[in-house]
Structures are given as C-alpha cells and as structure tokens.
Amino acid sequence: MSMDRQKVAEYVVQAARAGRPLLREAEAKSVLESFGLRVPRGVTLAFDEDPAAAVGTLRPPFVVKVMSERIVHKTEHGGVALNLQDLEAVRAAIADMKSRLGSLMAPSDGWLVEESIPRGTEIVVGGAIDPRFGPTVMFGLGGILVELMADVAFRICPITRADARDMIAELKGRKLLDGWRGSQAVDLETIEETLLAIGGEGGLLLALEEAVSELDINPMIATADGVVAVDARIILKGDVH
Questions:
Q1: What pLDDT does residue 105 have?
Q2: Residues of the chain below pLDDT 70
C-alpha cells in the first residue's frame, strides 16, 4: 500500500477516529514513504494466506513480522523472524508465530514479509506531541543503544537544516557516524533530510499532528548509500473527533 501526502492526513485521522491504537507496520511505512523515506521492499499477507506468491516477488534473505494492533512490541513477543533463506523458512516462521501469538491476533491481522537490509549503523528517529510545546522530534543512536546509552537529541518542530545538523553533532557517539575503527561512514546529508521530513516545516509530525501521538522509527539503517527505515511504529491519539 502506498499513499501520496494529500491522502495521508485523511487516512490517519480516519484510523484515529475509528479508535485504532496504532497503524500496522506496513501502513506506517507507507506513510513514511509518502514523506520521502526509504523502507524495505515488502508484501503483506492475511493471517492464513500462503506466502509463496509474496516470496516470489522478493529477494532473500527474508524477514517476517507479525502485524497486529494488539502486539505493539513485536520483538518482545517473538513476532519477528530474521535471515530466512527460502519459502519453507518463511512458512515455518509464520507457523511458529501462529501457534504462539494466534490468540492475541484479530481476524484482520496478518504478516509482513520483507527483504533483509544489509548491516549498517543503527539510528533512531522519533517524535511525540508534547502537551506544552507541540510536536517534538528526536534523533539518536538506534537499536539496543537507545536504552543502553540514551544518546539522543530533541528539538521542537519545525526544525531547520541547521537544527538537524546540530542534533547530529550533539550525540556523544557522533564518531560512529563518521566511521569508527574501520566502520563505514554514513550519509549524513540523508540523515539531515530524514530529520527534516519528520520534524521540518511540512514534515510528518506537523502534517499529522491532529491524529498522531507518537512516532518511533527504530532502527533505521544508515550507510554510505543512505538510510532505510527497518521498523516503524505510529501510535494514534485516542481523542480525535
């Protein structure tokens, strides 16, 4: 599913008005795409749909994720399977998740099958609607380093390119982005563009302020070739009328 920006606000507001707590990951990534962010190639499957056709359109290795509004933290529930080399591995991963998570899932829930993204430096971009300051954007080192190091920077939206550069420069682990002890330097300009797409004038947080409560893109994989949003969560407000 892919949406243009003109339709995104209506779609997200309607989802919030319907009482949905969050967008499913495929939906969230479609929203990110509409604001210019890169996401992995993927296909969504219904709960009982065979993955053969989907796998045939993608390149291995594959990733399988549970898609359910009731399972917010997929990894904690064992709802993510990585490095799957073929169709049978995908089928086995889905069967395993069904047996363990099926009771938590609604009939409309299903699976997201994606191409794996090559390794790089993990970063996080997020945001929230502060009751006093309005939309705020966050940037930091991603993956498990978010909780371990709490190496993040915040700004009130809208941010400028200078703000984006300052957020990058503020990180204690800034050298990791430049290439540290033989690691590859990342594309800082694309990170700046990503921060502007989320927190800048006309960015996602301002455009969807009416309906979005929180945004969490973690991890994003940053390399010399750009940035890809590997995981994305958009939590909706519960009081949209």
A1: 93
A2: 1-3, 143-149, 182, 241
Show the beta-strand stretches assigned E in the chain. 42-46, 62-67, 80-84, 110-115, 121-130, 134-141, 152-156, 212-223, 226-229, 233-236
Beta strands in 80-120 (DSSP E): 80-84, 110-115
Please state the domain extents for the chain.
41-116, 121-236
What CATH number was assigned to the domain covering residues 121-236?
3.30.470.20
- What angle, rounded to 10 degrees, do the helices at 5-17 and 25-34 form? 150
- For 26, other C-beta atoms within 10 Å of its C-beta total 20
d(CA 166, CA 161): 9
Positive or negative, the Cα torsion across 198, 201, 207, 208? positive
Query: Is CATH 3.30.1490.20 correct for 41-116?
Result: yes
pTM of the model: 0.92
How many angstroms separate the CA atoms of 66 and 185, rounded? 32
- For residue 153, the tally of other CB atoms under 10 A from its CB is 17
